[in-house]
Fold this protein.
Amino acid sequence: MKWREITEDEVKNTIREPEKIEYSTKGRKNALKHINEKWIKVTFKEEDGIIIIITVMDKNK
């Protein structure tokens, strides 16, 4: 996340309060949220009540 200039708080905020959820393969979800000048996309899955982050990206780049 650091080299993509996305903070941990931005990732948590995107998962907790997404503007949009897209369903992906293998039971994964994509949470999207506009924060400041960025459109953040967090791909994650839930297993046994635990959220596992797969990838994080700024969709503007």
Observations:
- Residues 8-16 form the longest helix (9 residues).
- The chain has a mean pLDDT of 91.
- The two ends are 14 Å apart (CA to CA).
